[in-house]
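One example given next:
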Amino acid sequence: MIEIFVDADACPVKEEVFRVARRYGLKVHVVSNSRMRIPGDGFVEMVVVSDHFDAADDWIAEHVRTDDIAVSADIPLASRCLEKGALVLDPKGRVYTRESICGALANRELTAYLREMGTMTGGPAPYKKQDRSCFLQRLDGLVQAVLRGK
């Protein structure tokens, strides 16, 4: 059965994940460096990891399996999950694939370099209502595709 792994520390779409998981009867692992509020109806497991850098990423990468779904904006974690055969979705509804992850990793490196040089300032665009809607639609579509065997 499909399980959903949420890189939860800065994830703005946890409630959407819970809604989809409840609809399909899926297990959700909410992985974080600290406790947070989760639904108490048994399908969600809170996993608190140590506060060392990348502890949540390491836990998710170790436990995710083929056809599971990882929800994360962390591109290196997305790459690790894809290597294990999982599907990966970021909070804005972007689905990472084996074909697209190399470009995303390269863009991440370039952006980090430009920030370091002072050429680029600021962070990502603000999260919008359309992003939440896109995420919800894509997560539901991924679950349906896996359940259909695609």
The beta strands are 3-7, 27-32, 44-48, 69-71, 87-89, 95-96. The longest strand covers residues 27-32. Residues 3-148 form a domain with the Rossmann fold fold (CATH 3.40.50).
